[in-house]
Design goal:
Blueprint (H helix, E strand, L loop, with lengths): L4 H26 L3 H11 L3 H22 L16 E2 L1 H17 L4 H9 L3 H18 L9 H10 L4 E2 L6 H9 L3 H21 L2 H4 L2 H22 L3 E4 L2 E4 H6 L25 H12 L9 H19 L11 H20 L6 H6 L5 H27 L5 H11 L14
Antiparallel strand pairs: 1-2, 3-4
């Protein structure tokens, strides 16, 4: 228990940094990589790293299900609002696809970009900077205007497709409204069933069970997400005038007498949350623009720094720290485009491979699973197109490669195939 909110806030930031530090080191050590997971599956039929990703998801789902059932914390109101009643299905899917394309072109997702920076990859610093700019201006207006990338490019056609639900969009809440039943009971039932099904899929593979790194990587990411939920939802309480409130509850209560009405000192983006990396990368630009004002040091920034430093320390311990740069100008352009798409898609889809694929999925939000599917689809299609263009060179136009890739994934009839399967 803390006496002031500011001391509690510092405790949460330090806890998040420590969790992210461990995650960064383990992700580096185990080569946990969601883009690599899709690549292994599409190009080699190897599902080892994909199962590690699913293990992280299953671990987080199981953990959140149990701690909510035990009334330890609630993830009904979070940053971002995974269970929010605004079901922006088109933004989830399209944002996910854009992010999946981007992470393939940019050699890794947001989390992997941070891990690569810690390992000495200078290309990832460029990717980080571009993600930061595009993620920031997706939700913050351009200087001297009220316009954002989202309001100019996406809002006019994606917002009308959104559905306003009568309540939360998680599976338990939706089933409760459609068929009746207690929401808490349904969340427990569906959480346990889904986690069990995912764990069965993961561990039915003998090869995966024998891969220490894949198991360690998946468990670590899943437990890190769970630990961050706990850190922001139940770790610290504040005694405010005799009322014991959680860190997040006290922040939302707007009881700031101890700051003598200094609104500028109020920390930003406080609330129950867990790991996601695209918007936090954008928050680093905000911190720079605000001249490193400590009130702009958020959960997300603590997580970003923690992952980079954890990866850096492991790189030194394992003697794998290597300086890397772009192979040529084309490689540079490809990474720039990938970073732009990750910055835009990660914000539009409300998260990245970790933010939606693990953290959001742990809340059983339907939108999170749509984004996850979009990310996998966008990444897999991009890899297939790249492969066909590599094999067939001039014969394979982008259109032919795209149609053939869609046929390979059984999204188009086989009669439309433009190129022989390879």
């Amino acid at each position: 228990m803390s006496e002031t909110f500011l001391s509690a806030h510092m405790t949460v930031l330090l806890a998040v940094f420590a969790i992210a530090f461990v995650m960064g080191a383990i992700v580096n050590k185990t080569n946990f990589c969601t883009m690599g997971a899709v690549s292994d599956w599409v190009n080699m039929g190897d599902t080892g790293r994909f199962r590690a990703w699913i293990l992280a998801m299953a671990t987080a789902i199981l953990g959140v299900t149990l701690i909510e059932a035990g009334d330890i914390l609630s993830v009904d109101k979070t940053l971002p609002p995974y269970r929010g009643s605004n079901f922006a299905w088109l933004e989830y899917v399209f944002g996910g696809i854009l992010f999946g394309i981007g992470m393939t072109l940019g050699s890794g997702c947001g989390n992997k970009t941070l891990v690569r920076i810690g390992g000495g990859n200078l290309k990832s610093i460029i990717v980080f900077a571009i993600i930061a700019v595009f993620a920031y201006f997706m939700i913050n207006p351009f200087p001297g205007t009220d316009a954002t990338i989202y309001s100019l490019v996406f809002y006019p056609w994606t917002s009308p497709a959104s559905v306003s639900m009568a309540g939360a969009q998680d599976i338990g809440s939706v089933v409760s409204r459609l068929a009746g039943g207690e929401v808490d009971v349904l969340r427990l039932v569906f959480g346990l069933l889904l986690a069990a099904a995912l764990l069965f899929y993961v561990f039915r593979s003998k090869e995966f069970r024998g891969s220490f790194d894949n198991v360690l990587g998946g468990l670590t990411v899943g437990l890190a997400v769970l630990a961050a939920w706990y850190a922001t939802g139940a770790l610290v309480s504040i005694d405010a005038d005799g009322d014991l409130l959680s860190w997040a509850d006290y922040a939302s209560a707007e009881n700031w007498d101890m700051l003598e009405d200094d609104a500028d000192a109020r920390p930003r983006d406080v609330g129950v949350q867990s790991f996601t990396f695209i918007n936090p990368i954008g928050q680093t630009l905000r911190l720079i623009l605000e001249k490193f004002d400590f009130s702009f040091v958020t959960f997300g920034i603590a997580a970003v720094i923690g992952v980079i430093l954890g990866s850096f320390v492991w790189s030194l311990i394992s003697k794998n720290f290597r300086i890397e740069w772009f192979v040529n100008f084309r490689d540079f352009v490809t990474h720039v485009i990938g970073a732009m798409l990750m910055g835009i898609g990660g914000v539009l889809g409300l998260g990245c491979t970790i933010g939606q694929g693990v953290t959001g999925a742990s809340t059983l939000a339907i939108g999170s699973f749509l984004t996850f599917g979009g990310i996998v689809l966008g990444s897999a299609l991009t890899m297939k197109i790249q492969y066909y263009k590599l094999v067939y060179e001039d014969e394979a136009s982008f259109g032919k490669a795209l149609i053939t890739a869609l046929v390979d994934f059984r999204l188009l009839p086989s009669g439309l195939r433009q190129l022989e399967a390879v």
